[in-house]
Design brief:
Strand order of the largest sheet: 3-2-1-4-5
Order of helices and strands: EHEHHEHEHE
Distance between the termini: 33 Å
Helix content: 40-55%
CATH superfamily: HUPs
Number of helices: 5
Shape: globular
CATH topology: Rossmann fold
Structural class: alpha/beta
Oligomer: single chain
Radius of gyration: 17 Å
Number of strands: 5
Number of domains: 1
Largest sheet: 5 strands, parallel
């Protein structure tokens, strides 16, 4: 007799792209079927600071450090509001156990670190994100790296 695969925890990285929206909808369907917990996560990429800001930071400009801190607080706040809306979508579609988190850092490293903390049975991720060059590629660099390095199965949604 073969063992039936179930997904108790599903991790869904969200970046606001149309592909991450599709991934969320697929994850909701799976969560309803398997009564899974959904973990939505957004990575606020700290490498997105303008180069001038980072160069000035090397000079220990206290005003600039304060500005970067304020930028991070604002970026996390925006991401949190978007994730709360996504959690509401999950619940309205019948996936009642949906949680969210915002992490700071480069997306691949941040998502994999989050994965290691949550221990999901599956990651459902969009094939392409919001970054410019990934619009040209068939598979985005973040989803490709996640699929290569994750400890659990990864479902890539196009």
């Amino acid at each position: 007799m073969s063992e039936v695969t179930t997904f108790k925890k599903i991790l869904v990285p969200i970046d606001g792209s149309k592909h991450s929206r599709k991934a969320l909808l697929h994850a909701i369907g799976l969560a309803k079927r398997f009564k899974s917990k959904l973990y939505l996560v957004t990575a606020v990429d700290t490498s997105d600071f303008p180069p001038g800001m980072l160069l000035s930071l090397l000079k220990k400009d206290e005003q600039l450090e304060k500005s970067i801190g304020q930028f991070m607080v604002a970026a996390k706040s925006i991401a949190r509001k978007e994730l709360l809306a996504d959690v509401a979508i999950c619940k309205s579609k019948g996936a009642l156990n949906a949680y969210y988190d915002v992490v700071a850092g480069r997306p691949v490293e941040s998502i994999l670190k989050y994965e290691r903390g949550v221990h999901p049975d599956l990651i459902v991720i969009g094939s392409k994100g919001l970054h410019g060059m990934s619009q040209v590629k068939a598979l985005g660099s973040v989803s490709r790296k996640i699929s290569e390095l994750a400890k659990c199965p990864v479902m890539i949604i196009h």
